[in-house]
Amino acid sequence: MLKKTIAVICIAALLFTGCGKKTSTNNNSNTNSTKNEQKKNEKDDQIAEVPVLESLPQFSEMKDGEEYAVMKTTMGDIKIRFFPEYAPKAVENFITHAKENYYDGLIFHRVMNDFMIQGGDPKGIGTGGESIWDEPFEDEFARELHNFRGALSMANAGPDTNGSQFFIVQAPIESEEIAAYIDKQVLLMEEQGEGQSPQIAIDKYKEIGGTPHLDGHHTVFGHIFEGMDVVDSIAAVETGKNDKPIEPIVIEDIVFETHKAQ
């Protein structure tokens, strides 16, 4: 069962991002060895310049007056906070669409238990949607934000193709084997030059789960702070072809409220 869960996550990641193949060859040339060593030293110098990340915004206390969204679905309410300082265009796009009732009546067209739930497509099949600028907008990756369980992220068809579709990460942490998988993915991200993953993020993935293999591929711009039980219920519904729920799960409305510090 565990291997099946990992396989589902990996396959879903390919559906989201497309697939690439990284190859390597062994070469005993002294010249190539010297060049490789120089590149390694340059990379080490760059990593050394990155300041240590001591906190994760997704789990910080909400500020007095902070605006958040309440996504009202046919299965319950989901409360979302946003991070415009790290992903300004993604936040503006989602909030503007929501306030203009773009998402009202749309369904979660793709749900995969122990992975994510996806919505935001007017066609309801995963091929539609547009940004508020009527054209795709660029990715916004920040080392402060990650695809932890509860993250709100942009769904896309490849680099810089963001429109209106989004997903909420639902993947849990279930065992030491999954934790080891997370460590492996984080190391791969570093080796492929997709950004340094701070230890604090690795530890958080181990604690609560998530999809680290989507970091550097999908912009994180919000996080669920209440209603993950609703997300879990949506993810667990019976699905048919292309992971579409048999019974439609509808976003009825998205309203905005202001946090008041106690």
Descriptors:
alpha+beta, 262 residues, 6 helices, 18% strand
Notes on the protein architecture:
There is one protein chain. With 262 residues, the protein is of the alpha+beta class. 31% of the residues lie in helices and 18% in strands. It is built from six helices and eight strands, in the order ααββαββββααβαβ. The longest helix is centred in the first third of the chain and has 20 residues. The N terminus is likely disordered.
Gyration radius (Cα, Å) is 19 Å
CA distance, first residue to last residue: 44 Å
Number of helices: 6
Approximate strand percentage: 15-25%
What's the helix-strand series?
HHEEHEEEEHHEHE
Mean pLDDT: 83
- Describe the global form: globular
The neighbouring-strand order within the major sheet is 3-4-6-5-7-2-1-8
In total, how many beta strands? 8
**What structural class do helix, strand and pairing data support?**
alpha+beta
Fraction of residues in helix? 25-40%
Low-confidence stretches: 1-35
Report the sheet with the most strands, covering strand number, pairing sense and barrel closure.
Answer: 8 strands, antiparallel
Topology:
Blueprint: H1 2-17, H2 30-49, E1 67-73, E2 76-82, H3 88-99, E3 108-112, E4 116-119, E5 151-154, E6 166-169, H4 176-191, H5 199-208, E7 220-226, H6 228-235, E8 251-258
Antiparallel strand pairs: 1-2, 1-8, 2-7, 3-4, 4-6, 5-6, 5-7
